[in-house]
Amino acid sequence: MHRRSWVCWLLGLVAAGGVAWGQVGSDRDLLFAVNERLQADPQLIGKRLTVEVSGGKAVLEGEVETLAQVDAAVLTTGRVYGLTSVVSKIRLDAPQEDDQALVRRLEDAFGRQLALSLAELSVKVRRGKVVLEGEVRDARLRLAARRAAAEVPGVLAIEDRIRTPEVADELIERSVQGLFRRGDLVGMRGEIEARVRGGVVTLTGTVPRPFERRRASELTEGVNGVRKVVNELVVVPPSYHVPVVRP
Predict the structure, then answer these.
(1) Of 24, 30, 153, 232, which residue is most buried, by most CB within 10 angstroms?
(2) CA-CA distance, 71 to 224, in Å (whole number)?
(3) C-alpha–C-alpha distance, residues 201 and 92, integer Å
(4) In angstroms, rounded to a whole number, what is the distance separating the alpha carbons of residues 191 and 205?
């Protein structure tokens, strides 16, 4: 669509009351945007989810079958500009299996991914809570293992005890800072600083959406030597306003 045609179309919507200028941060418009995204997410089709937005804070409720679907709902919601936080009160509604059956399903899930099948990982389950242990050469396998476990129905929680090679704090800090300097390549925006002490990485600064705040922790956990991430990032939505189109 040419610029002139696009402007005419947009002005027509304004005249018809279909566009709300300068209200993208209002709770009503944020709620509309969140619902649009959730309905379009292929992992959440047919799921019974409800959303409340107040003061830029989104609260998700409803039922899904897996932790992966909970994560999908939180991440999808967190992509909406104007939100400052996302809280999940989503319940898991899946048949509970005995612990040994769940261990077998988790081992099968890991076996379907070559990198995980070759890793020296052990899986323990107690009343639906999964504990992952072992040692990997690439910390990104920790994330892959958690994601694979989260997709298995019946998993209620995941504790990651997987170890990675020891790395000096200054090298960890350099690696983490390097990730955030290449923000466009790793899907990140914001002004982020990392401090490292004893393998514990503290992230400070600002990001535009809850999505980037969550993504920053995951990227940091994928760096060898990182033992823990303390996320002190503050979500500061963009100051500009975008027109919100309603049907």
Answers:
(1) 30
(2) 24
(3) 31
(4) 5
Mean pLDDT calculated for residue range 83-95: 93
At residue 20, the 3 state secondary structure works out as strand
* CA separation for the pair 201, 35 (Å, rounded): 34
CB neighbour list of residue 205: distance below 8 Å, 6 or more residues apart: 190, 191, 192, 193, 233, 234
Q: How far apart are CA 217 and CA 26, in angstroms?
A: 28
For residues 49 and 65, is the Cβ–Cβ distance under 8 A? no
The percentage of residues in the chain with a pLDDT greater than 70, rounded to a whole number, is 85
Query: Do the two domains 22-93 and 169-235 of this chain adopt the same fold?
Result: yes
Burial per residue of 194-227, b for 16 or more beta-carbon CB atoms within 10 angstroms, e otherwise: bebeeeebebeeebbbbbbbbbbebbbbbbbbbe
Asked if 30 contacts 80 with a C-beta cutoff of 8 angstroms, the reply is yes
pLDDT at 239 over 90: no
Query: Would the pLDDT of 4 be above 90?
Result: no
Q: Please give the CATH architecture assigned to the domain spanning 99-163.
A: 2-Layer Sandwich (3.30)
Which CATH code, of 2.40.160.20, 3.30.1340.30, 3.30.930.10, 3.40.50.1580, is assigned to 169-235? Answer: 3.30.1340.30
